[in-house]
Write a structure and sequence with these properties.
By secondary structure, this protein is mainly alpha-helical. It is 81% helix and 0% strand.
């Protein structure tokens, strides 16, 4: 297993710890703030490890199919875990989380179909902006719990960037689904 893949696997292993601490932070007990900061630290470390494993993979020629798959999976699992906890805490509507997850499945499906045609669909700018907005927004929600207007704004930004990037991926790659049409 390459160094880059090991970094990715550490990110996957961090996710259950992140979930536990974020859940504990929502219980309002005496240690809620400490749990929240631990959850935030885990989330930030896991998020930054995404950049690190990508750098290591490219710089040291460690790009593998395993790494490509698990890197993407780790990112989706981390974000989905955070969304689900926020839904459970009443800080995000379940339908917004559903749209985010559905978009991820749809793009994975589109990429799978494209791959059968020998085509690779690279991440577009709108997808990168969506990911950045989502990560920054979720971090802001962890830093400032109980600020309803912030939760609402973050949820709106995540929803808009998710929908826009999803539509853009399909608009630019629709021909993959309709060969010969």
């Amino acid at each position: 297993m390459t160094t880059a893949s090991k970094i990715t696997m550490v990110r996957v292993v961090l996710i259950p710890f992140f979930i536990v601490f974020l859940l504990l932070s929502g219980n309002g007990g005496a240690n809620a703030d400490m749990y929240r900061w631990v959850a935030l630290a885990i989330f930030v470390v896991a998020s930054l490890s995404d950049f690190l494993d990508g750098y290591v993979a490219r710089h040291y020629n460690q790009v593998t199919d395993f790494g490509k798959f698990f890197d993407t999976l780790a990112d989706k699992l981390l974000v989905t875990a955070c969304l689900m906890v926020f839904v459970g805490q009443g800080r995000m509507a379940s339908w917004i989380a559903f749209i985010v997850v559905a978009r991820e499945f749809a793009i994975m499906g589109l990429r799978s179909v494209a791959a059968t045609h020998g085509r690779v669909i690279a991440a577009g700018w709108s997808g990168k902006i969506k990911t950045s907005c989502t990560m920054v927004g979720l971090i802001a929600m962890m830093i400032f719990p109980g600020v309803q207007i912030l939760d609402t704004i973050v949820c709106a930004v995540i929803l808009v960037t998710t929908l826009y990037s999803g539509f853009e991926y399909f608009q630019k790659n629709w021909d993959v689904l309709m060969p010969g049409a």
